[in-house]
Amino acid sequence: MPESLDLVVTSVATRLMGATAATAVDVSQGVLAELVEYFGVDVSFLRRNDHTLHASVLVAEWPVRPGIPDPDPLAIVYFQDADPVFALAEHQKEPVVFRPEPSTDDYQRTINEGRQIPATSMACVPLLSGEVTSGVLGFVKFGDRDWTEAELNALKAIASLLAQVQARVDAEEQLRYLAEHDDLTGLYNRRALLSHLDARLAEGQPGPVSALFFDLDRLKAINDYLGHTAGDWFIRVLAERLRRGAEGPHLIARLGGDEFVVVPTTPMDADAAEALAHRLQSVLRERVSIDGEMLTRTVSIGVALGVPGRDSTSDLLRRADQAVLTAKGSGGNQVAVFTDDMSMKNEFRNDIELHLQTVIENGALLLHYLPEVDMRTGEIVACEALVRWQHPTRGLLAPDAFIGVAESINMAGELGRWVMRTACAEFAAWRSRGVGTDAVMRINVSPVQLVTDGFVETVAGTMAEFDLARGSVCLEITESVVVQDIETTRITLAGLKAAGVQVAIDDFGTGYSALSQLKSLPVDTLKIDRSFVRELGSDPGDLAIVRAIIALAEAFGLELVAEGVETEAAALTLLRHGCHRAQGFLLSRPIAGAAMESLLAKGRIPVQF
């Protein structure tokens, strides 16, 4: 090879050495410009073979054609539709020279359509990656040109360098694809989503930017029933439906598990985003066939908006996440649009969770007591221990504000044990002073406590520690807990009964399936749920339920207590139908321990209705 050709190859190698996926086209174009000048040709081009499409794709050309047609006939040329010259490029292994002659008329016509130039001669050199032809390097001379063997050898060396660059670019693009896409579904991943939203929410970008957060309801059941392979297949099918159903260039990302986010690529207000969410929800609800099973899962969707320059990516996704949690908390299969109220509730919950972790050791818990009264005489027959939390900034909180959070972070059992020990200790202190010796202390038990190993022994040990007589303590469990696991419940309740502990079913009437099991459970008391008591005297439907519960208690010889008595009409209705014991604001609000001791010392409260 002449020295001048060696210098050209060396120059090209130097140019290509630093080429990356981002610069490869510009660098290649510069190389083509240098080669066009050196070889004295009119046009040079670099094309790559897409063996998936079976097509030749234009990478770079020099000079760039002015006024490129749309569509460009040279941008993508499918081999099956190509003339014989182009078709050779699919598997070409050696350089080929074409000169103006009848056998190349089709090729001359294609070039003329793309460049509006007369008859040409051309040298085509394949780019080889192993045994695969990955592209072609071409040089066109208007008119005729002969190519020497030394020139073709130099072009083969240059083509080899370009093939290496192309392989490097392909590897970079593959790595970028893997870095930005979910390997299960092919959708964008969290990283790509965050990058997209960062760009969309930048100052000066059009808005608002909407985000739809999808969370499948109860996917775990599919994994448990059919296995994780079936669950993955289900996810892939839904991802494809989401891709098709979006009907637009929206960004669709899988965050992991069964969570997806759709970001419309144009500004969209809340109403339009909510409408899109409902449409996609109906698409995802269609059944999927897996292993002969026709399965379907509902989906909860949270919708949120962000304003460019004001809201960050984390702001937008946090709101969408809060909205989807609201949708799932409402039973699932819902679309919820973020509101400021959701934000306040979430802030409150986070505050509760943050401080709840240390609430017991900080001594911030205390007990109030709700008296239980015989409405015929005013006699105080029992009191129910109710936990309160003296929050550092929010004041005195009732259980409804924090028990749900405690259950979600596995603190319910710890709280329950604190309540039991504290109530028993305080009750024992009262009785040691001769107060409340005939009364019963009622203590609520969480579902977690009831199924904990050694629960019965713990309760018996606590009563023994504080020397509380048999029958002086009653544990309250909700009716819904009874029906969840009737056999375990029956064994536990039998153990409590043997230890001298009374048992009451709280909120009775809300879970009717417990009625058939009642006769086989060692229960002492039924407490009528407040929802049936509140409107007594005005709602005949509530009266019918209460009368049925009263009859049931009489049939099984059980004590009966009405909760939530707040009106004289309710109190008189209960008395008239045979329910004498009650608690509620009409009789007394929950009071602190010292006040409860004083009330027990008096023995009764005045009743005038």
From TrEMBL:
Record domain EAL: where: 349-604
Class in the EC hierarchy, top level: hydrolase
The entry's keywords: Hydrolase
InterPro entries attached to this UniProt entry: Biofilm_reg_signaling, EAL_dom, EAL_sf, GAF, GAF-like_dom_sf, GGDEF_dom, Nucleotide_cyclase, Rev_trsase/Diguanyl_cyclase
Domain GGDEF span(s) in chain numbering: 207-340
EC numbers: 3.1.4.52
Pfam families: EAL (PF00563), GAF_2 (PF13185), GGDEF (PF00990)
Top-level taxon: Bacteria
GO molecular function: cyclic-guanylate-specific phosphodiesterase activity
Name of the protein: Cyclic di-GMP phosphodiesterase Gmr
Organism annotation: Mycolicibacterium chlorophenolicum
